[in-house]
């Protein structure tokens, strides 16, 4: 149903892997979009966007969204 993405750094893999929607949100966060703008662009509620961003921070073990985006970039999820 959904294609999942994972990036391999050495022998470590992000687990669980990212869904395509999470990749889209990461890319828009990296471009400096606000969560409200992302929610509107991706036709979702603001609270859904906040929830997905929070889950991304957990997946990347990041204390904030900026660190999450940097880690996603360093691991090859953001182009």
What would your notes on this structure say?
With 79 residues, this protein is mostly helical. Helices cover 53% and strands 5% of the residues. It is built from four helices and two strands. The protein has helices spanning 20-30, 35-41, 46-59, 65-74, and strands at residues 8-9, 12-13. It has a two-stranded antiparallel ribbon with strand order 1-2. The radius of gyration is 12 Å and the shape is globular. It starts with 7 loop residues before the first strand and ends in a 5-residue tail after the last helix. The model is unreliable at 1-12 (pLDDT under 50).
Layout of strands and helices, then pairs:
Elements: E1 8-9, E2 12-13, H1 20-30, H2 35-41, H3 46-59, H4 65-74
Antiparallel strand pairs: 1-2
Count helical runs: 4
Helix content: 40-55%
Major β-sheet profile: 2 strands, antiparallel
Overall morphology: globular
- Strand arrangement, largest sheet? 1-2
- Identify low-pLDDT runs: 1-12
Q: Give the mean pLDDT.
A: 86
Annotation, overall tally of beta strands: 2
In quaternary terms, these chains amount to: single chain
The separation of the N and C termini measures 24 Å
Cα-atom radius of gyration = 12 Å
Strand content: 5-15%
How would you spell out the order of helices and strands?
EEHHHH
Derived from helix and strand composition plus strand pairing, the structural class reads mainly alpha
């Amino acid at each position: 149903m959904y294609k999942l993405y994972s990036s391999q750094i050495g022998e470590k893999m992000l687990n669980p892997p990212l869904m395509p929607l999470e990749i889209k949100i990461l890319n828009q966060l990296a471009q400096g979009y606000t969560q409200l703008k992302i929610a509107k662009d991706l036709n979702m509620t603001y609270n859904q966007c906040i929830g997905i961003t929070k889950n991304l921070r957990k997946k990347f073990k990041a204390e904030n969204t900026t660190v999450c985006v940097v880690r996603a970039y360093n691991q090859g999820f953001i182009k």
